[in-house]
């Protein structure tokens, strides 16, 4: 998979990029965990997500947020990292003008950035939010959440307790026109130690079902006159 360097708002950003053979293939952008706690684009879960989308014919990009690896700049508490993600998507779209849709998948801190990007980019038709932390980060911007997606967390996650994730899911599930799928990996912690295969199985199952036209939100009920 080609190593790439592209321009971001705080300097160059380093990524790994795999174009699809199909010119109009959808794009997948994968976002890594917290830069100050060892998160990089080479995180095992980020790599597996990249490979999952690539195997299904997506044009796929993962990259290091500012200040990580060969990416320039310094950690910016989320605001700059969101700009990095937007620049990354712009860069892929500039190479693939025939791609009309994209997906974003983020893990931990990356899921918070991904959900914010979702609000700004109407072409994002699906998301995967892995181990989001609504106890740490404010997700109130999801009003309303514009796309259907998967939220998945570990049952034994002490970094993002299950009750907090459940609260976020319940809030999003009340919104019309989208379908939020929620999965919990039994006995898994925030890092899915020993459970990455189970996690990826859930992600693959969800993506395959969406690509097959399943998991479509119910149309709004028609009012009886």
What features would you highlight for this structure?
alpha/beta; 22% strand; AB_hydrolase_fold; 5 helices; 8 strands; 8-stranded mixed sheet; Rossmann fold; Alpha/beta hydrolase
Question: CATH fold name, please?
Answer: Rossmann fold
Instruction: Give me the Rg, rounded.
Output: 17 Å
Q: For the largest sheet, list the strands in their spatial order.
A: 1-2-4-3-5-6-7-8
Total DSSP helices: 5
Helix content: 25-40%
Q: Give the topology string: H per helix, E per strand.
A: EEEHEHEHEEHEH
Q: Superfamily at the CATH H level?
A: Alpha/Beta hydrolase fold, catalytic domain
Major beta sheet summary = 8 strands, mixed
Structure at a glance:
The protein is of the alpha/beta class and 225 residues long. The chain is 31% helix and 22% strand.
Folded structure, characterized:
InterPro entries: AB_hydrolase_1, AB_hydrolase_fold. One of its GO terms (molecular function) is hydrolase activity. Residues 34-135 form the AB hydrolase-1 domain. Keywords: Hydrolase. By secondary structure, the chain is α/β, with parallel strands linked by helices. It has five helices and eight strands; from the N terminus they run βββαβαβαββαβα. Strands 1-2-4-3-5-6-7-8 form an eight-stranded mixed beta sheet, with helices on both faces. The longest helix has 17 residues, at 79-95.
